[in-house]
Amino acid sequence: MRVILAEDSTLLREGLIRLLAEEGHEVAAAVGDAEALQAAVFDGAAPPDVVVVDVRMPPTHTDEGLRAALEIRRRRPGIGVLVLSQYVEKRYATELITADTTGVGYLLKDRVAQVDEFLDALDRVGAGGAAFDPEVVRQLLMRSSHADLLSRLTPRERDVLGHMAQGRTNAAIAGQLHISQSAVEKHVNAIFDKLDLSHVTGYSRRVLAVLRYLGS
């Protein structure tokens, strides 16, 4: 894949450049601030497949990276965006997730040290899927105001919904929970029923199921 990196930590940025190059990806640009990121994306000769961007970047180190990521998704929705964050930024994570879950990911920086998990997330985002850090999902679900909906689900259905929120397919969920894919499908259908989503058309029921728990 063709990747653009935006990370103000020189050490992490250089490490990601080397890792991606070793995996056969092309690092089209590696920058240290949000302004340079947007210039690389919008003014470059060829668009990247995926942008990997830190939430907090210069000059204020608040939400420059996240705002740049949202602008990229608005103007170039075909570009995947994988956001990295030192901590779970609940407001920013919710904003990113609720905007669209096609080709988007949100990982804690600690997850980057788990190389296989980081590369798996990058591949999923590049293929148009979603990849959300389990800790991000856990904290977002905890803040949900829809406790009454949570009470409708069995513990196993909650497990399945948690993996759905991470962007995993039914087959991947089956592998993670060590159950059959048909069992996962039954749990997913039960979740849709309990959230009154069985007859929804025109929208992704998987996305709607997750968003109900994010209070959106």
Automatic annotation (TrEMBL):
Cited SMART domains: HTH_LUXR, REC
Domain of life: Bacteria
Keywords of this entry: DNA-binding, Phosphoprotein, Transcription, Transcription regulation
Annotated Response regulatory domain residues: 2-124
The UniProt record lists the keyword Transcription regulation: yes
Family matches, as InterPro entries: CheY-like_superfamily, Sig_transdc_resp-reg_receiver, Tscrpt_reg_LuxR_C, WalR-like
Domain HTH luxR-type: 146-211
Xref: SUPFAM superfamilies: CheY-like
Protein name: Response regulator transcription factor
Species the sequence originates in: Actinomadura vinacea
